[in-house]
Design a protein that fits this description.
Elements (H helix, E strand, L loop, with lengths): L3 H19 L21 E7 L7 H16 L7 E4 L40 H8 L22 E7 L2 E2 L2 E3 L4 E3 H13 L5 E7 L17 E5 L8 E6 L4 E5 H12 L7 H11 L6 E4 L9 H4 L17 E2 L3 H11 L6 H29 L3 H9 L7 H14 L7 H4 L3 H8 L4 H11 L3
Parallel strand pairs: 1-2, 1-3, 3-7, 7-8
Antiparallel strand pairs: 4-5, 5-6, 8-11, 9-10, 9-12
Helix pairs in contact: 2-5, 5-6, 8-9, 9-10, 9-14, 11-14
Length: 441
């Protein structure tokens, strides 16, 4: 029998030789598949969503494509990235560079190589929630059928880009309500569907999706482009494409990720950088802020890559609700004598629509209020949304009878007045009757 010391030396020798022969190295994301992830080792998942369509909303899908490139480049396998976007830009008749989408003035193509799992009519709130919570049976007949099949130690990153309103994120033809999102998160937490979950949300009033409703004990961290009351901002107007290429919050976090070592920079450090650079709205953070101590690489991919430093250019930032009008004024300034009257008419039509939206909501408030004092108070206030059971059916009827709010950001930005009615405890039946009377079919 070998003495103890000799036995130890033999074990060390075997370990060294084995290490030389097999070149042991830490397992990376590319080595680990969902079916072999151990209880101790999680993997990365990402869900990237652009919830709008149309050329005026170019920036949302451009942001989403750029996010895909960052996460893919940093080593998250394509099979663990799920994308949702309408996909009407690359081959749009207004695209002067067919097949190409950019996210920065004179920037590179961010569309090439993006695998889009759910497009067109499959970009819906319900499919989003089913994909996020891994309900493959629910989406087996939609898109690619791919879902976030995450487990109890996995890191899940969700990037959502679109329009918003109090307690709402918009999709091309429907809306996601805050209560449905939070209930899904709670269910995922109970079912141990993630180790840590991070949201980056670009939308007007996006803070309302998390403020006072996202529990701090569920291993979820969220940052948003704006607080619960204000607009997010479009940026990078492109004369050639005649639309905005990005959103301020989104391009700030992505251009930071392009140039930083994501294995060294923490989520909180990125939040501070983006908050400082986004001087158009208040970038916010919610949930379990201890997750902010994790590196960005734990959610955006931890593979080292060459840095990309884009030249600084003016934002030309405008509030999201003003984008269609701003685009028309830009087109007008560049128009010829034949185009000018057509564009001027489009401007007048859009201004008339905005005035009609404003008057409609004001009339609903006036009809539903008890008296002029309450009506004036509602028109002058901004209450925090808590009356979800009142607000949801009211928004649904307003969307059905008055304006397609997923297509009119200006209408979304007026929904705070419906919040006020609910928070003033006006009976939901009274509000619904007022909407039906003001917005007759």
């Amino acid at each position: 029998m070998l003495p103890v010391r000799g036995l130890v030396l033999c074990v060390l020798f075997v370990a060294v030789v084995s290490g030389q022969l097999f070149k042991f190295k830490p397992r990376t994301d590319n080595d680990i598949r969902p079916d072999d992830a151990s209880k101790e080792t999680g993997v990365h998942w990402a869900l990237i969503v652009a919830g709008s369509n149309g050329w005026d909303n170019y920036r949302h899908q451009a942001d989403a494509c750029h996010a895909y490139q960052i996460i893919r480049k940093h080593g998250v396998p394509a099979e663990r990235i799920v994308t949702m976007m309408y996909d009407d830009l690359a081959n749009n008749e207004e695209n002067p560079t067919p097949g190409i989408v950019i996210n920065h003035p004179n920037g590179s193509d961010v569309y090439k190589g993006v695998v889009i799992d759910y497009k067109g009519d499959d970009v819906t709130p319900q499919i989003f929630l089913d994909v996020l919570s891994g309900k493959s049976e629910k989406v087996k007949n939609s898109g690619s059928g791919k879902v976030i099949n995450s487990g109890p130690n996995d890191h899940v990153f969700v990037n959502f880009v679109d329009h918003g309103a109090p307690g709402i994120l918009a999709f091309p033809s429907d809306e996601l309500h805050v209560k449905d999102l939070i209930n899904t998160i709670k269910s995922m937490h109970a079912d141990k569907k993630y180790g840590q979950l991070v949201f980056y949300v670009e939308a007007c009033e996006s803070g309302s999706m998390f403020e006072d409703v996202l529990p701090k004990n569920m291993n979820v961290y969220a940052t948003t482009a704006s607080n619960a009351d204000e607009s997010s901002y479009a940026c990078y107007y492109d004369d050639k494409r005649q639309t905005y290429l990005g959103d301020v919050y989104s391009v700030n976090w992505m251009e930071d990720s392009d140039k930083e070592n994501l294995n060294l920079e923490t989520l909180h450090k990125q939040f501070l950088i983006v908050r400082e650079e986004t001087n158009t709205s208040h970038v916010m953070e919610y949930g379990d802020k201890n997750i902010g101590d994790e590196t960005c690489g734990q959610f955006q991919g931890n593979q080292d890559v060459d840095k990309i430093i884009l030249p600084k250019v003016p934002y030309d930032a405008v509030p999201s609700e003003d984008v269609p009008l701003a685009i028309l004024y830009r087109k007008l300034s560049a128009s010829n004598s034949e185009q000018e009257p057509i564009i001027r008419q489009r401007i007048q039509d859009l201004l008339a629509l905005r005035a009609r939206i404003q008057k409609t909501v004001k009339d609903i408030v006036g009809l539903a209020s008890r008296d002029i004092r309450q009506s004036d108070r509602i028109l002058r206030s901004r209450y925090r949304l808590t009356a979800f059971d009142c607000y949801e059916p009211v928004v649904e009827l307003f969307d059905e009878r008055c304006f397609d709010i997923s297509q009119f950001d200006f209408a979304l930005r007026r929904l705070y007045l419906l919040v006020n009615l609910c928070e003033e405890r006006v009976p939901v039946e009274t509000i619904l009757e007022s909407i039906a009377k003001v917005c007759k079919a």
